[in-house]
Structures are given as structure tokens and as C-alpha cells.
Task: structure prediction
Amino acid sequence: MIRTSVLHQNHLLIPQEDPPQTTLQPSFKSGERECYLSFLKKCRNMEEFKQAHAHILKLGLFLHPFCTSNLLSTCALSDWGSMDYARSVFDEMPEPGSFQFNTLIRGHLKDTNMEEALLTYIEMVERGVKPDNFTYPSLLKACARLPALAEGMQAHGHVFKLGFHDDIFVQNSLVSMYGKCGEIGLSCAVFEQMNEWNVASWSAIIAAHSSLGMWNDCLRLLGDMNKEKIWKAEESILVSVLSACTHLGVLDLGRSVHGFLLRNMSGLNVIVETSLLEMYIKCGNVEKGMHIFQNMAKKKKNKMSYSVMISGLAMHGYGRESLRVFEEMIQQGLEPDDVVYVGVLSACSHAGLVREGLQCFDRMKLEQRIEPTIQHYGCMVDLLGRAGKIDEALELVKTMPMEPNDVVWRSLLSASNAHGDLETGEVAGRRLFELNSHKSSDYVVLSNMYARAGRWTDMARTRTEMHSKGLNQRPGSCSVEVKRKMHRFVSQDAGHPQNKSICEMMYQMEWQLKFEGYAPETDEEDEMKKQRLKGHSQKIAIAFALINTSEGCPIRIVRNLRMCNDCHTYTKLISMIFDREITVRDRNRFHHFKDGVCSCRDYW
Result:
């Protein structure tokens, strides 16, 4: 058979019946069988395996199905095995059956050679070997990993034709395959049509939603699973749930999952521990995240663990701590990759460590021989721009070996806005508009810069251009966690059932803020803007949390946009007046407010 890419074979394959097996087989006594199995189990590398193979050939036992099947599976599925050698063993078999083909498919999966796994299935069908219910879980896993939706749907058709559509293992694989291929509707349809669900079924459907970032649905499905009363310590489910908690900022539920893990599992593997670490850090509890990281066994810490810790500390503005973890990683003999360096450079940027950031950038290029990507240059532009080195940032953009993207120009525009450099801001803004930016915030930032400079004609032109492209300013929203439930508010929100109480609390907050010298960051005569600032979603979320949580309880808020200067000043003072720790995660980083001070030290 010619081995061409499976993704270019569009014909439907029709499974056929098994041909009759007519090969004469040598006799094989039970004692010889046990001796043979023991001989194969002792193999620890390919050299020993080849000796076992030669011994079998010498005894004339190669044609016995038991012998050849174990020989093939040992070579194909062992960590030290070779698929090339396994294929040579397979090719010597006169009439391989479904077990032998299934073994080859599983072996290719183990070696992450998904196309070869699918091609093996095609060969199986073309040679008239009937697939069984053990064939399809492996085959569908290969389709999911490619991803190859069309081939997966053909396999689904074969499943129906052969009558395996009620097999729970095949059904679970179909749920997973459709989810990982982005067809969540088909994934849910298969799930709903199942006669019964086991833990693996729930794991597959939750993972399907997780892979598409449908975090609220992950938590909803977890609740449905609990109602079915089949909840147990299934690591894959808990990792998906932890990912949902991480992205939604639901710390209390994440803590509950952690407690469940501790009560029901004797030891956590590195994937689960890293998921816990990421959940705590990205939900704002950096101390607990650091505690988990420090208590992980050194031999369990891998590149992913260090990468999560470094980037997590960067998000919280703990630049020097991030660099310390980076140095520890290198001392442990782990080679940093481009992803780790993105976290390191980001940490330097958020903490204002310009000299250290430049050193790390050079180290990456000269010592690790890593070619900087657009993400690394973006971090460097952000680093220089935040520090007020606008000219150097612009020069770096001009000398980059690749064409700057919108993220790079947006970083430069933001820095120009923060440091009042209208000339560079105009350059960055024009380039963003040339790239056909669809972010209204780019137009808003530049128009506001024109307004501060008194260039009203340019401001009006920029606003008009924004509206002519049909771009509307994205409304700000905040989610705050109260009693294990996330409550979402948008700017000027008046639709909450507790709206009257929220308004009363906001009035009380404003009254006390006046005594601390707070004034909205706007012109005295701009009453319309003052009213808009009063209704920012972050202020509404804080008022709601103050009403519904006990005194001294921390408040955790997740924003969809970068925090404005007014909300930043407002929240600092509220943390002091009401003696609350307030953690806000915006689009870029964390802000920890306590006693009237923010962890960013106003460098953001």
C-alpha cells in the first residue's frame, strides 16, 4: 500500500468480513507459554528484545498467534520499543487479525504519529480485517489529536455499521473526539444519546468544553455530575475543573477541589500539582501558589511548573521573585525555552526591571541560542515603554527582524499615552489603523491624547473614523465572587435584584471618599463624565461585595478590560476606609489593594 497523507484520502471505507484463517499453527504447551512470556517481560531495551526475537525464530514458534501477538505488543507498546521494528515483525505475519492491527494503531499513538495510526486503520479495512470495539477508542484518539474531523466522522459511520454505537468506551471516545475537533454540538449530542454515563463519560464531556474555553459550562457539568451521584477522584475531570476555576477566578471552588484531592488521593502527580499552582496564582492567592510550588519535590518540578510560577509571579508584579525562580530552574538543570523567556521578560516589564530585562534578552539569544519571536520583542517594547524610554522602544520596533504586529504597536501607543508622548503615539496609532485594527480602544486612546493636547479637530476625526468602521467602545464588566458564586456587573448596571442596596452603599462610599480628598479624574465642568465614572463596573462590584460579605473578608474581582486610573485610585482608598484586601485581575495583571496601597506601586 502507498503511504500517503490520511488527510488527503476522502473516500469512505467499507469494513469487510474477516477472511478465513487457514494457516497451520505450531503447538504451544502451557509451560512453554509461561516461559516465553517471562522471557519477553525481562526485556529492557531493543537489544534484549532482538535476542528474544531471534530465540523465537530459532525455536520455530514465530507463526503461533500467541507468540507473534506478544512479540508485536512488547515491541510496539514498550517505552523503549521501536515502531519501525514492530512494523517489520507485523509484515512477517501471514494473516494479521484485529488484535495485531489494534496494537500497531496504539503503538503509533504512543509515538504521537497520528497520521500513521489512521493509515494503519485504512490498511486494516482494505485487507478485509474487521475492526472490533477495541479499535475505535485508539483510532478516535488519533483523529482528536490531529485534529481530523472528517476522518473522525467516517469512523463514527463505521461504528454504527458494525454495531458498536452502544459501547460505552467507543461513545466516550466519540464525545472526546468531537470536542477536541471543535464540534461541541456533536460532542453533546453523542453524550446525551448514551444509555449510561460513567466517570470517563463525564471526564470526556467536561474536557470537551474545557478545550474550547467554555468554563462556565465546565462548572455546570460538574454540578450535573454531582447530581448523578457518581462523583469520584478522577484526575482528568479535576484538572479540567481547575482550569475553569483558573480562567473564571473562582477561588472558593478551586479550594474545594484541592480539599477533595487531599482527602481522596494519596499523592498528586505533577500535572495536578501544576494545575493547582496555576489556579491559586491566577485566582489571586499568590502565597498559596508559592507554598504549593515550594513543597513540590524537586524531581517532580518540570519546565511547565517553573513556567507557570514565573509567569504567575509576573502577573502579580513580583519581578525579582520571578527572576529568582528562573535562576532556580537553571540550577536544577532545566533548559528554559521561548515560553519561559516570555514569562521572564514580562516579569521584568511589570516590575520596571529594565536592566535585568535587557540582560535576560541578551542571555536568551547568546547563551540559550533562542531566536527571539514577536512575543519576546513585544515584551521588550513594553519594558522600555513602561519605563518611559519611548525613543528606545520605537527604535527597537523599527529594527525588529520581523514586521511588528498590532500587539507591539499597541504597547507603544499605551506607553506613549502614559508618558504624554503624542508624536510617538500618533505613529503607533497610524500603524495600528493601517493594520486594520478592530479594537475601538486604540481609537479612544489616541483621541484622548489629542483632547489633552487641545487638538480637537484631530480628536473628532479619530472618533469619526472609529464610528465609520462600525467600532463601538467595548463595555467594561467585572465579576466578583461571593459565597462561591460569580456575580457579573457591567458599567452603569442597574439591573441587579439588590440594585437599591448597591446604590445606597455606593453613596456611602462616595461620602466617605470625599473626606479622604478623592475627586474623579475629570474636568470640574464635565458632569457627564463624572456620572460615567461613578457607574464603572468595578465600583458597583465592590459595593455589592461590601454588602454581601462579612467584615474583613477579602474581595476578589475579575475585569475584562484594563483598569482605569480613576478606579485604581478609588479602590486604593476604599481598601483603607473599609479595611479590606481587594484583589483585582484585569486584562494584563493583578492589583492587590491593602491599607490604601496597591502592589503595583502605581507602576502599571
DSSP finds 30 helices and six strands in the chain. The two ends are 61 Å apart (CA to CA).
